[in-house]
Amino acid sequence: MSRSGRVTLSDVAKASGVSRATVSFVLNDDPRQTISVATRERVMAAAHDLGYVPHGIARALREGSSRIVVLNVDWGMEGNFSRSYVRGLDEELAEHDHVLLVRHGHAAPEATQKILDAIVPRAVLRLGEVYMQGHGPIEEDWESGFAANAALQIGYLAERGHTRIAMALPDHDFPLTEARLGFAQEAARRLGLPPLERFVVPRPREAGEAAVEGFLAAHPDVTAVAAFDDDIALRTLTALHDLGRRVPEEVAVIGFDETEHGSLSTPALTTVHIDAEVLGRLAARAALGIDPEALAPVPGRIVVRASA
Q1: Dihedral through CA 76, CA 262, CA 281, CA 71, nearest 10?
Q2: In this structure, is the dihedral angle defined by the CA atoms of residues 22, 25, 27 and 29, taken in order, positive or negative?
Q3: Residues 6+ away with beta carbon under 8 Å from 213
Q4: Which of 97, 236, 239, 254 has the smallest count of CB within 10 Å of its CB?
């Protein structure tokens, strides 16, 4: 072993009785070299026994980039959607001998450049970037994308006779707040509904109660609330409970991006479940230049419970 304690190509070469170059050819599966099956097996066995791990920086220099894909997830983007997206992205990359590095927080250009300089990643992705840049949805998004999931939430309320719907929003900016609100408003327009009212449900509990009370007093015709996410929906349910308002008889509430907490509330929270694992796999294949083949996004679905 080398002085650093890391097993090197020379160690594998010595253990297998071949040259260092032969070990390199075998481990990198160089198609230009003709090496016998017996020699390949001997080298691979020696590498396995010694616990040889390829040197990532050296390979990055040789290939022009490392086998690392970086995903930036902004604050406020954590949820069931992002977790399933990361799972799909990670598993697909692993199947193609790549590693995923997830960074949480604001993806500032200077921070991204440090990553580029340090590890020379194969690709740098940012969750939801296309919507953060202000791009509206293409028509396919209304079939199985982000817009379709927003429309699913509004459509569920409309199917149950609600025509005056409000959108409950967080008390601080999230990266996709404007996109979510825009898609919901467009969904309402397509359904022939009036524009959605909007209000903020802040923390703590007393502030949320005051906000909901004030909003309903100013908008007595509103019969349903579509929340930005399950967290905001649960704040709204709590406020309605504290105000003595019956759910869903007086005001229906529906969440978005299902969390496990919604099933524990009283009444249990109706919400939208989004499975983004396939989207993560599609992103991985796009980053690696691999044909997506038959992969297709999975449509969202309503989790029917008592609140709506």
Answers
A1: 20
A2: negative
A3: 239, 243
A4: 97
